[in-house]
Fold each of these.
Amino acid sequence: MRRLISSTSFIWRLFRFSFVSFPYLFFAAFPALSAVIGLLWIKFRRSALDVTTRNLVLAITGLLWLSCLFAANRGEAFLQLFNFYPYLLLFTVLPHLLKGTEPLARIATDVIIAAIPINLIAAVEYWLRAPGIPAWLRRTELSRWFRARPHKERAMVMFGHPNALAAYLVLVLGLGLGMILYSRLNAAASDNPEPKPESSRKFSWQKALLYSGTGACLLGIFASGSRNGLLVALSQLLIFGLFTPASRIMLGLGAVGLATGAAALGVGGRALSQIDWANDPRVGVWRFAFSLLAERPWLGWGLGNFKLQYPPGLIPEYKYIAHPHNFWLLLAVEAGIPVLLLFCWLVGRICVQAVRQLRTAPPPERALLLAYLLAFWGCLAFALFDVTFYDARINLMHWVLLSSLYALIQITQQPDCKN
């Protein structure tokens, strides 16, 4: 029994199940993920990171603790460490599981397929919350329940905010776009041009779900009413078009059509106008955040302390606000500029190395790299205008994506990278 639990295959299955089911099971999956971290440490007894990356993680960990010691409200600051420490710990050991391209492709495909129900529910929620539905439909219990939720006419499914739903779906969309290319290249590079009927049928179903899951993300993002999500999705489509000449025209027309439709009809029940963009209250929040940063630039005010420093009603649109709608600015204000710089070094170093490998990696591995880079680009771009890491589902996804990119760099740097 002990040998079974310590086997890599058991840990992989436990991680795969808990990670893919996490959006649905949420806190019920935490014990399984904690077990994954513990079992990996017991089995390998060391970090999976290179010396530089490991030292960056250690420095960030220490400075976050120091920032909490000097926080304006220490209790809140130490509580907020749970949004960082478990994920940093997972990041240090997860690459042990991600050896070879096969598990990375498998986990990406699983996530895309698992998100299909989320997008379908988002579409139903958006429809039932629309103002023009028939009166008889509006009186149904399901419609009443959806209409009683906050954020009028915007879908949020099981997430706490429509923007959190959009933040999750842009990550899935990035994976889906890259995995479509990966499946094409993998099929073209196959040594067996005439697969068995069983494997062909399985591949066809998987391919259909892959395309459906990726396309459904656009529907879910639209239903969320997130302008930020729409812009990030458009950027992902345009970037993907640069790497797929055969689909460039189709993707370009799709992106233009999505943007034009959103401008004409609004996004998830929200009208888009130049006045709304120009008068976005985020600008006022950013000014206030910079004023806080100027007062305590080195160790910050403490994690979770931004909301405690915000005077209620300072900005008319926000009686209460938990963050400055920019992750990097929040990190600087709450943890200090040194932590911000170390985070930028950690993330930037991995992303730059991954982009460089796009030029030299074999086509299938290059497509897999593109999938994870597009997904992580969704994380970085969304973080410029919103903060969603408080949702554990999104936070976990961010760190798994970063771990996957790190693992892919190690794979593609090998002289003969094979599955």
Amino acid sequence: MADLHLPGTLTPLFAGLPRQVDVDANTVGEAIEHLDRDWPGLRDRLCEPGPLLRGHIHVYVDRERATLDTPLQLGSRVDVIAAISGG
């Protein structure tokens, strides 16, 4: 299981979505697909229509920048961060 942490900006959009979720997945992409099964539309918020994260979404696995193909190990910490801009 990986320990996945989501940004607070997502929780108001998906009823019952916690900020922290344990997921059984081999890659970051699989973890997002797992979440999308329970909260449909979540993948669209995090990923482009193809196999890429959206430009304002950054994912780190054990403090290292990650992509959808980044492997997850038992006990990996996955942080999903949404960049916020303003002026």
Amino acid sequence: MSIDIKIPSIGESITEVTLTTWLKEDGEFVEEGDILCEIESDKATVELPAEESGVLTRSVEDGAELEIGAVIGTLAPGGGAPAKKEESAVSEPTSTAPPSVPQQAGGDKNFPSPAARKIMDEKGLSAQDVQGTGKDGRITKADAMAGSKPTAAPAAEKVASPPKAIEAQVPQGGVTREVRREKMSRLRRTIASRLTEAKNSTAMLTTFNEIDMFWVMELRKKYKEQFKDKHEIGLGFMSFFTKACTIALREVPGVNAMLEGDEMIFHDYADVGIAVSTPKGLVVPVIRNAEALNLAQIEKEIKRLALKGRDGKLTLDEMSGGTFTITNGGVFGSMLSTPIINIPQSGILGMHNIVERPVAINGQVVVHPVMYTALSYDHRIVDGKESVTFLYRLKELIEDPSRMLLDV
């Protein structure tokens, strides 16, 4: 008895998914636990394993949009695999039946053989267009291959002439004007919808500041080998910024809040989302209680989530419930940007690339590595004073990392 393969429930708020890729062929025998296909929801891509061993029969194609609970195929337990071979063996004689029909009229003048008829159909020829040289004027395969329609050539030339005129206008040297259409993935559509909603539903504003990265870079340079030996993880800048943000969020709680109807919800914890670029689009996994983690723990969590994001293995729980977000366009060379709030949050920090610039230190002009930072915030919750205070506090902590240790 066949077992239905159904789309499972993968999240409380998710009602529709897209079957992106079948990983097993129709009619293939699969073992229990084998991954049958990948399913993409609004937030993540999940794998669907086989509940039992059996022969797979697929009932939907790649790219199908389905509701939760929809049947996408069946599994026939036991030795169902040979059945497909038997069917193909039975069907073979039926495919040879049509040639028996023309054999009845084999002596008619200009009647084509089966092979000749196939060639004539492909070339669009009738019996009057071909001179038969076989017995009793029968059209052979060679006659069909040599035959042509005399009146077709001028018409073909007329039809072909306009494209030639157009081709003459196209630049040479490998330049093309081809257009490629590609359907948006469900994740990409969700990203587009959420970003548009954020722009339209919030009073979004961005404030900027610059941070002298000299001292944090010196600290990192001095201790990065010892840090790696002890914690088995590299020391990057994201852990410093994440830790500094949790301190600033505690002092400016509005940036860590969100609106729900007529109420403002403030959080006494910091679940910090880290924007990660993946082949399928932007995802924002969340570091839970980042305020309670040290630099090594933050680095390990960032690496774990980033690797899962790259491989499409993030779960819905790992991407929901954040209270604040950090995005680092600097890894791609961005100098300055205005990041869009990850609603319903009220703030997002944009980090950028580090460039050596002249700065004044104790009355002397020196060249230091400088990063521009941007805080986009919802002005309905966060006032201008609070946004500036947050960024300035962040600047203090990064420019003097010892403040994070001393909590001053």
Amino acid sequence: MLNYPIKFKPILKEKIWGGTKLNQILNKASKKENIGESWEISDVAMDYSIVSNGVLNGKSLRELIQTYKGDLVGEKVYQTFGKNFPLLIKYIDAKEALSIQLHPNDALAKQRHNSFGKTEMWYVMQADKSAELIVGFKNEVTKKEYLSHLQNKSLTDILNIDLVIEGDVYFIPTGRVHAIGAGVLLAEIQQTSDVTYRIYDWDRQDSEGNFRDLHTTEAIDALELSSKENYQTSYKKSDNIIEEIIDCKYFTTNILCLDKAIEIDNKYKDSFVIYMCVGGEGVILKLDNFQETLNYGETILVPAAINNLEIIPLNKSKLLEIYIQ
């Protein structure tokens, strides 16, 4: 019954750096404190997303792939990834800064962790005044220089640190040093992987006085030492037109800034399509005799078998559209 857009129950993760925005701004109901992440669509082992709407309610994402195969994810995607869903979709709230970290590429991740690598992107949904993101180095560094700053706890002296506002986008390829700063709420799109090399954690201790593990040795072989003049991704924001933000081998992400209904034709994509509502009051996704509301801070998956639908904004709203080329 892949004749409707599918919603999943958010998987909420407590984090030492998490806050209350996922609950208070994105309406992720939870009695837990310090919620740092909402995994919206996940095929990570032991964290499989569960359907929350329609006749498939209660089924896991893994069950859907096993049953519907290419009708769910697209024939080309299924031939490449099999029963593994290739993307992990999150919302992240950083009350405090996350650790400075990086991720290995596919080859290293496969060799060391039997996992995919972790290329990702960020879309800033809300940022407190003076909130920052760390992305990459200011200037190209050597391994010796990097290790010296790491040992002397002066790593931030050589890192690129940007003030951010709503709508800013950053693409984070494997190997690039990065960290979400305090006061940032963002949407994250990434390869399905939970492999992170933490290189500095601000000398932070948990409630029992323990420091989190660092991965200094593992990170050296994975580290991107080069630099860029500008790490922020620029893109167009045209009303009622699908505009591309990121196109890489792992995912394509577009933005839709809507104030009127538009028709969507996905028949040439041969891929599932994910929509994340990252601004405004939300939209209605309508096809045939079915419709589903996508509110601000929600995520929905449109199966590859669905070619056409209408998206109707409740007011001026922004969506991220994600699929695999």
